[in-house]
Specification:
The complex is a heterodimer of chains A (297) and B (268). By secondary structure, chain A is of the alpha/beta class. Helices cover 37% and strands 21% of the residues of chain A. Chain A is globular, with a radius of gyration of 19 Å.
């Protein structure tokens, strides 16, 4: 990471070509095929997800709480965007709205020009508390989405096997969830989401439940996994460090109601060095700004 | 050589359990015996007399009616299992419905809350006379097992982790797929827990119900008959049989419950 580096970083340079055979296999299934055809014309770097004027209001008996207000964001295909903000500002609410788990009060969420109504397998999600099915083995957890989509058994297990290998769990593919450590559980979560080739993967503080050391390992692993698969990711975190280490852009939110404070382009190529002077400076600047946001009422 | 107990050796642990159980049993028999001597009434026979009557019952059956012990046990067990299956067949779908649909649950709650505290045995005379002596005890068992089963299943459906439902939704699952692939498996431990509790209560019900149902026979009938005739050791022998069968029933239920919980990976 050199300050004087004049050549701009090639956008998304850390990703290689997607695994071709996986896409071939997916194309055989009519359900998946329809979707992939539909979005096939969107190329890397073009806008995939468009959120305009998103507004989310929660009603209680006493009052209405505006959780998110006039939130507008475009996400390009192949991009990794982090959303950070003061705690309790509505980061997760935005993510759940994109996933279709919460109905927005106003505004629109579009994927490839199509309005998102309710949850769907085009938007995968990875949860902070893993949300794995405890009665299923690792392999069966990863196969869940493909089972739902009605993909034939052989193809299912072949694809699951490949993604389990990708996240480095091939020794544990027949283990039950409770036998795994936190980091391993989240790797299953990642495999379970990525194996369905979602258009966008929503990660809700995915490493928040892990200890600091495992967290750093997982971040590095995520980048490694992303080299081998083509993914668009929205990543919610409360760690500025994590956001700067992983993302192409960092979206800073205000206190509730969540609005966009500013969007920071992270200019450095990956892998990034946390101890680098620029990295430390930028992290400090963002932390200061977050603190200011927290103090201001 | 002095024996040293090692708590990490499973044979030592087993021997310890065995020893403690044996001691507990000896204390029980001794207290019983003392009691029968002190009370000095035919209503409390000593253990030896009871065992005598028990051996007699096993060998010769009921000397009054000429029915064998096996027939009595079979009769009791059949009624018990039929009542249990009936309760399961009604409570399972009903519990899933009540857990899933809030309004339905609210509608059913007042009725259930009125019915639940009524002791199942209280129904025995009514069922016996209003229905008949054959299905009556079955219905008593049904009532006994039904409520704990229903409560547990409804609770299990309500307790389902909303995150798992969210996860299934983001993986593209429809409502019916969520029901089949998330809701059903996650309620299994609760169903098993309900069965475990229900079987214990049900077994109490069957014996009590049989006291009212002479034509049906069964081990409860034998108990009533012996006590009425004033042949106390016979009545106590019946109680021993009831205890052993009850122990077997709960043991089997406990084993199934533990197996299912482990299989599903959830503890209740």
């Amino acid at each position: 990471m050199n300050k004087d580096e004049s050549t701009p970083r090639k956008m998304f340079d850390f990703r290689k070509k997607p695994m071709q055979s996986a896409d071939d296999a997916a194309a055989k299934n009519p359900k998946t095929e329809r979707r992939e055809k539909f979005y096939a014309d969107i190329r890397e770097g073009e806008t995939l997800l468009d959120i305009t004027d998103l507004r989310i209001v929660f009603k209680t008996d006493e009052k209405e709480i505006v959780a998110v207000d006039s939130f507008t964001l475009s996400v390009k295909k192949g991009e990794l965007i982090s959303i950070i903000g003061p705690s309790g500002c509505g980061k997760t609410t935005i993510l759940r709205a994109i996933a279709g788990l919460i109905e927005p009060t106003g505004g629109s969420i579009r994927i490839g020009g199509n309005e998102c109504k309710g949850p769907g397998s085009d938007r995968g999600m990875i949860f902070q508390d893993f949300a794995l099915f405890p009665w299923r083995t690792v392999r069966k957890n990863v196969e869940f989405g493909m089972e739902i989509a009605g993909i034939p058994k052989e193809e299912r297990s072949e694809r699951a096997e490949r993604y389990i290998k990708l996240v480095g769990l091939d020794k544990f593919k027949d283990a039950r969830v409770h036998e795994l450590s936190g980091g391993m559980k989240q790797r299953v979560g990642i495999a379970r989401a990525f194996v369905n080739h979602p258009e966008v993967t929503l990660m809700d503080e995915p490493f928040g439940a892990l200890d600091a050391q495992t967290r750093n390992i997982m971040q590095a692993q995520l980048l490694r996994i992303l080299q081998n698969t083509e993914q668009t990711i929205i990543f919610v975190t409360h760690s500025v460090d994590e956001a700067l280490f992983l993302s192409d852009r960092v979206v800073m939110l205000t206190k509730r109601p969540a609005r966009i404070n500013r969007i920071i382009e992270v200019p450095w190529p990956r892998p990034r060095d946390r101890s680098d002077h620029d990295f430390v400076e930028m992290r400090k600047a963002i932390l200061d700004e977050l603190e200011k946001e927290n103090v201001m009422n | 050589m002095i024996f040293k107990y090692d708590k990490h050796n499973k044979y030592h642990r087993f021997a310890r359990t065995l020893l403690i159980t044996a001691v507990s049993f000896v204390i029980f028999v001794t207290v019983w015996w003392e009691l029968s001597v002190l009370a000095n009434t035919p209503a409390i026979p000593n253990p030896l007399q009871t065992i005598d009557a028990l051996i007699n019952l096993i060998h010769k059956g009921d000397t009054f009616t000429g029915v064998s012990l096996g027939t009595y046990i079979r009769s009791s067990m059949t009624t018990f299992i039929k009542g249990f299956l009936m309760a399961l067949a009604v409570a399972l779908p009903l519990g899933l419905l009540l857990g899933n649909f809030k309004t339905l649950n609210e509608l059913a709650t007042p009725i259930l809350e009125i019915m639940r505290p009524i002791a199942p045995i209280a129904w025995a005379p009514i069922f016996m006379l209003a229905v008949n002596f054959r299905t009556g005890p079955m219905l008593v068992v049904f009532v006994g097992i039904f409520f704990p089963l229903l409560t547990n299943i409804t609770f299990g459906v309500k307790k389902i982790d909303p995150l798992l439902v969210d996860a299934a939704k983001t993986l593209g699952a429809s409502q019916s797929q969520i029901f089949m692939k998330v809701l059903l498996p996650s309620t299994i431990p609760y169903v098993m827990n309900g069965i475990k509790i229900g079987l214990g209560i049900g077994w109490m019900c069957i014996v009590a119900a049989e006291l009212y149902a002479p034509p049906l026979g069964g081990i409860g009938f034998y108990l009533a008959e012996q006590a009425t005739a004033g042949y106390w050791p016979g009545a106590y022998a019946a109680i021993v049989i009831i205890a052993v069968l009850g122990l077997l029933t709960t043991g089997v239920a406990d084993y199934i419950h533990r197996f299912a919980s482990k299989r599903v990976g959830v503890e209740v």
